[in-house]
Structures are given as structure tokens and as C-alpha cells.
Amino acid sequence: MPKAIRISKTGGPEVMEYVDVAVAAPGPGEAQVRHAAIGVNFIDVYFRTGLYPQSLPAGLGGEGAGTVEAVGAGVTHLQPGDRVAYAARGSGAYAELRNLPADVLVKLPDAIGFDTAAAMMLKGLTAQYLLRSTYPLKSGETMLFHAAAGGVGLIACQWARALGVTMIGTVGSADKAALAKAHGCTHVINYNTENFVERVRQITGGKGVPVVYDSIGKDTFIGSLDCLQPRGMMVSYGNASGAVPPFALSELASRGSLFITRPTLFSYVAKREDLEARAHELFEMVESGKIKIEIHQRYALKDAAQAHIDLESRKTTGSSILVP
């Protein structure tokens, strides 16, 4: 029987169990995928801890790449043998074999390997919608991006460089600062040794930035607002340090009529045509060499708990994958 990671209760990494699972034939509108590689993302931690609720028992993981083994009734855009990848709402990717809705799968170009695809679908599509849609960056602009040496961050560094955008990135160590710099981040701030608000003001000559992309949450939220120009955009897309506490809307008014949004990838790829267009642009950037996907951590599927321990302790850089 195929193996998978399952949880029957929420909690720490120890709640993850490596078990045998039965996988039925795919139903109508479904495809069965045998994973070659599986992405690991902070959102998986949110589901494991219960910050994002789901019915239990349940799987974990929303990103993977592999080969179609079978398709259900009504599926016409895929066939057995197709190389595919996905970043999908819900959980279940931490598995050797799974069924999932066929309309979340995109075909992989031959030039992109399974490991690369599993490491980039959620992170790469996130960078794409953030930089190209939520606040469409233009050449010559300056922005602030937290966690610049993380999986999304390293892709954002390279994408910003390709767009001609000046990126100010925050990191938590000298090694991560060097990594972000090497990937195109123009100015790097170590938030453990520097005040990032003061440094942003220095770098921008006191003007601040038109947009902040913040996946850290609680620890950086107010500081991020303080980095914005009047009428700037706060993009809060994650909670790595904890959920942002309730705040008064007057906080936005007092800083110059700021805008704020809490986007998710799945709102931006809800339509099939949007998913295909965003994936196409991401694939083009990778195939052209403008973006290189950095896989810095590989774990066996059975060692998923260790992957979560490393992720939560901020030991990881770039992308992490599980290999069945």
C-alpha cells in the first residue's frame, strides 16, 4: 500500500504519522498522481497546529509534482503518463499517491524537473501574484520584502531584479543576508541587529516605500506600516510569527491613508485560465534562467516531522522538499 503522512490531532511535529493508506480509483473530475517530489511550506504548519482548521484525521501538504497514473470520468486535459505539478487548496500532498481535482493540475514543461516543480509551485505562484497583481511593481520602484532568504523571498529577489525593482529585504542572520544579496536583493537588513524601520527610512531618504510584502505577521506588522509612504500598500500574506492582532483602522489613517490587503494564492488562481496564465509566466521565468529555484533541504517523506522542526526554527533557506 502507498505511504502517507496523516494527523489525527493538532499539535507539534510529533502528531505526524507515517502510515499505509488506501487510494481508490479517481472519481469524476479527478486525477491520480504518483508524487516524485512534494513541497514543504509554512502553511502546512498552520494546518498541523490547528491555526487553519480542517476535519481530522487529515493529510498535510498542498504542493507536489509527479506523473498522472489514472484519470476519472470527464477529465479531458490530462491522460496517464502526463508530467504535472500543482499548488492546491486543502491537504494531502504528503503522500506517495493521491487523488485530487484534475483542474488544479498543470502540465510541466520538459525542461523543468519534478524536484524543481515541487519546490516552486506554491512559492513561485505566490511571488508571481504578489509582485505582478496584488501590487504590480514597475521598473524603478522600491519595495520592502520580509523573509527575503525564504522560499518565496529568494524567488521574489530574482523576480524583482528582472523587473528592475529595488528590493529591500529583511533576514535573520548574516548568512541569510548574503544569500538574499546573491539572489538580487538590493539592500538587506538583519532585523536581529538593525531596526528595519529606521534602515528603510535611511535607504529611501525618509520617503518610505510604496509597498511592503509581509509574511511574518505579528512581530513585523506595525513596523511594516511605519515603512510605508502615504497611500502605500501593506500586503500581509502570512503569519510566521503569529497572527496579526486586531488593530484600529485609525492606524492606517494616521500614517497617510494606507491600504491593506490579506491575499491568498487560491483567490488568484480560482479560475482555470488564471492558474494557467500565472503558471505559464512562472515557467517562462524559470526556463529563461531569470529565476533559479533553490532547493536547500531535502527530506524523505517519512522524515516530514524533521522538516517541520527545521522550518519552524527558522533553520531553512530557499525551498524544502519531501521525496517519497
UniProtKB/TrEMBL annotation:
Residues 11-322 form the Enoyl reductase (ER) domain. It comes from the Bacteria. Transmembrane segments: none annotated. The lineage of its organism: Bacteria, Pseudomonadati, Pseudomonadota, Betaproteobacteria, Burkholderiales. This is Quinone oxidoreductase family protein. The keyword ATP-binding does not apply. InterPro entries: ADH-like_C, ADH-like_N, ER, GroES-like_sf, NAD(P)-bd_dom_sf, QOR-like, Quin_OxRdtase/zeta-crystal_CS. Keywords: NADP, Oxidoreductase. The keyword Oxidoreductase applies. It comes from Undibacterium arcticum.
